[in-house]
Write a structure and sequence with these properties.
The chain is of the alpha/beta class. The chain is about 35% helix and about 20% strand. The chain contains 15 helices and 22 strands. It has helices spanning about 40-55, 70-85, 85-100, 100-130, 160-175, 190-200, 215-225, 240-250, 275-285, 310, 320-330, 350-365, 400, 420-425, 440-450, and strands at about 10, 15, 20-25, 30-40, 130-135, 140-150, 150-155, 180-185, 210, 230-235, 255-260, 265, 295-300, 370, 390, 410-415, 430, 435, 455-460, 475, 475-480, 490-500. It has a seven-stranded mixed β-sheet with strand order 14-15-16-13-12-18-19, sandwiched between helices. Strands 9-8-7-10-11-21 form a six-stranded mixed β-sheet, sandwiched between helices. It has a three-stranded antiparallel β-sheet with strand order 5-6-22. The protein is globular, with a radius of gyration of 25 Å. It starts with 7 loop residues before the first strand and ends in a 15-residue tail after the last strand. The relative contact order is 0.13. The structure holds nicotinamide-adenine-dinucleotide. Nicotinamide-adenine-dinucleotide binds next to helix 7 and helix 8. Nicotinamide-adenine-dinucleotide (NAD) binds near residues 260 and 261. It holds the Pfam family Aldedh.
């Protein structure tokens, strides 16, 4: 299946990039080129920002920015309906472009539509939140609050959930009344360009959403430093997040950053082993292991460090747990993402493939044991495939424990006391997510409180709902997307204070009384 040949989407029209350049699209399952995307540059970003600004101001904002939320909600619902109508085609394109198993891409498309629907509801609810009164201590003043769109926003997104990550920003931004320029990842932009087509089909007012594909330094950097952008919302790596924050600083431009992670999953000795094994693997190997919130550090209960007499009284699950994990991991179907039942496809690019293999070889050279995986599967000669890897004999100084791999690689450290588990859990610069698996609810509650992260899963890992806020602590970024507050990321609050008395203010002496 070839991918559609698209141009940049600026001011409601397809437009060839100013410098006429294009980037190849490579199918990670076959390593074959399957098409091209436009390579936008600063000139295109300028045009897209100008189109977004014009859309914001059109008819003094009455058409979009100052229109009732209910008007914008209609467009968001129309987009959601089109996504569902085109679901199987979009899911196929997503899998071809980034290697995600087809079932997961289809799931993503449902989530994309659900997210547009959710923010359509919040756009309508915004109308009811307008002009909320503020109670003041003086009777001669009245005060109320307006929530207004922040303006033109730059949205920069990664490749692991190409259309879904874009939607997490586009839907709330448009619901709020902002206009936007989206810069998707150069490694997977195909479905975002199809979103442009959807916007054309539903008649979204021109310039409300503009999409400029291209390389990070050539298209992303000019967007993040653009003087006529009012906010930058970014999802991607910690390294790029720092650059974006620095680029926005001279103009005191607000940014929100959703960055990487190295999240823990703690498994206690009182779990049902089979259920816990499956969640542990899902937590790290879903989306081919390329999940920002992957619980890629398994912290596993093992009493082997305790005295023999104490040990004899405990249920020690570690050995069996590791054996069952290996058995389950080897049972995961690694195949072309379009093949029925695929549960792990190729990673997105050759660069990522080489990087992940290097992580595994470095772990080995530092003394860790590769229990299973970390190599190309024998039955797949082409494509960026890596068998899911489980790594033991890890210590906290190793790279594999400290750095985000962004691939199907799980590392394991064992603990014998809850205090020790907490130490290990928070032994990271990141703080996106964490999971605890245990039959003891009080213990789960204690860990929930003590894990320093923005998202905690109890007896599961990874489920994500657009109704709940998403985001991290520490070097995983700041701000929260999604949830009821998700729309507030794109709103600014205006207080309106009115003098409501017939009496003169009376602070200065009136000259007429002299
Ligand atoms: P990346 O930082 O390499 O790229 C992200 C985006 O930034 C891309 O569109 C890229 O073109 C652009 N970019 C690159 N250099 C830029 C620059 N100098 N200025 C402006 N834009 C620039 O990240 P990636 O490899 O696409 O994605 C993987 C990373 O994203 C991982 O670290 C992962 O954890 C993180 N991520 C986080 C979340 C979250 O919700 N916290 C979700 C998904 C991915």
């Amino acid at each position: 299946m070839a991918i559609p040949q698209r141009q940049l989407f600026i001011g409601g029209e397809w437009r060839a990039p100013a410098l006429g350049r294009r980037l190849p699209v490579v199918n990670p399952a076959t390593e074959a080129p399957i098409g091209e995307i436009p390579a936008g540059t600063a000139e295109d970003v300028d045009a897209a920002v100008a189109a977004a600004r014009a859309a914001l101001r059109r008819n003094r904002g009455r058409d979009w920015a100052r229109a009732p939320g209910a008007v914008r909600a209609k467009y968001l619902r129309a987009i959601a309906a089109k996504i569902i109508e085109r679901k199987s085609e979009l899911a196929r394109l997503e899998s071809l472009d980034c290697g995600k198993p087809l079932d997961e891409s289809a799931w993503d498309m449902d989530d994309v539509a659900g997210c547009f629907e959710y923010f359509a509801d919040l756009a309508e609810a915004l109308d009811k939140r307008q002009n909320a009164p503020v109670s003041l201590p003086l009777e001669n003043f009245k005060c109320y609050l307006r929530k207004e769109p922040i303006g033109v926003v730059g949205l920069i997104t990664p490749w692991n959930y190409p259309l879904l990550m874009a939607t997490w920003k586009v839907a709330p931004a448009l619901a709020a009344g902002c206009t936007a320029v989206l810069k998707p990842s150069e490694l997977a932009s195909v479905t975002c360009l199809e979103l442009a087509d959807v916007c054309k089909e539903v008649g979204l007012p021109s310039g409300v959403l503009n999409i400029v594909t291209g390389l990070g330094p050539e298209a992303g950097a000019p967007l993040s430093s653009h003087p006529d952008i009012n906010k930058v919302a970014f999802t991607g790596s910690y390294e790029t997040g720092r650059k974006i924050m620095a680029a926005a600083a001279p103009m005191v431009k607000p940014v929100s950053l959703e960055l990487g992670g190295k999240s823990p999953i703690v498994v206690f000795d009182d779990v049902d082993i089979e259920k816990a094994v499956e969640w542990t693997l899902f937590g790290c190997f879903w989306t081919n292991g390329q999940i920002c919130s992957a619980t890629s550090r398994l912290i596993l209960h093992n009493y082997r460090f305790l005295l023999l007499t104490v040990r004899a009284l405990q249920r020690n699950i570690a050995k069996e747990f590791l054996e069952r994990m290996v058995a389950w991991a080897r049972n995961i179907k690694v195949s072309d993402p379009l093949e029925e039942g695929c549960r792990l496809g190729p990673v997105v690019s050759e660069g990522q493939y080489e990087k992940i293999k290097k992580f595994v070889s470095t772990a080995k050279s530092q003394g860790a044991t590769i229990l299973t995986g970390g190599v190309r599967p024998k039955h797949l000669e082409k494509g960026f495939y890596i068998e899911p890897a489980i790594i033991t004999d890890v210590d906290t100084s190793m790279q594999i424990w400290r750095e985000e791999v962004f691939g199907p690689v799980l590392c394991v450290i064992e603990f014998s006391s809850e205090d020790e588990a907490i130490e290990l859990v928070n032994d990271t610069h990141y703080g996106l997510a964490g999971a605890v698996l245990s039959g003891d609810r009080e213990r789960c509650q204690r860990l929930t409180e003590e894990i320093d992260a923005g998202i905690i899963w109890v007896n599961c890992s990874q489920p994500c709902f657009c109704q709940a806020p998403w985001g991290g602590n520490k070097r995983s970024g700041f701000g929260r997307e999604l949830g009821e507050g998700g729309i507030d990321n794109y709103l600014s609050v205006k207080q309106v204070t009115e003098y409501a008395s017939d009496e003169p203010w009376g602070w200065y002496k009136s000259p007429s009384k002299l």
